[in-house]
Write a structure and sequence with these properties.
This protein has about 100 residues and is mainly β. About 10% of the residues lie in helices and about 40% in strands. The protein has 1 helix and 7 strands. Strand 4 (about 55-60) and strand 5 (about 65-70) form a beta hairpin.
Length: about 100
């Protein structure tokens, strides 16, 4: 099953993203799964004014580490090639360049 979740330590994630990708990050709200298939999911969230784009992260269930799966300009994304019958968590952060 595919689920969305927010990350409990926002400041730690924010700092790591800003450092790694050299961007300023804003917290995204309203993240939800609007549709899903057997190996894909469509995510949508509230738009952030003046955001250049959004980085979408997925957690590695084995290591607990987050990794980037998409970088989009709009407040919606389709994530494909997900393992069938598994649960996963996503995190979205807006950025301004």
């Amino acid at each position: 099953m595919l689920t969305t979740d927010s990350f409990s330590d926002y400041e730690a994630v924010k700092q790591a993203i800003e450092k790694k990708f050299n961007v300023k990050v804003e917290k995204v709200t309203g993240l939800k799964c609007v549709s899903k298939g057997t190996t894909s999911v469509r995510l949508r969230w509230n738009e952030i004014n003046n955001a250049t784009g959004y980085k979408v992260f997925q957690v590695n269930s084995s290591t607990g580490k987050w990794y980037k799966v998409a970088d989009v300009a709009t407040n919606e994304v389709v994530i494909k090639k997900l393992p069938t019958g598994t649960r996963t968590r996503f995190l979205v952060r807006a950025y301004k360049r």
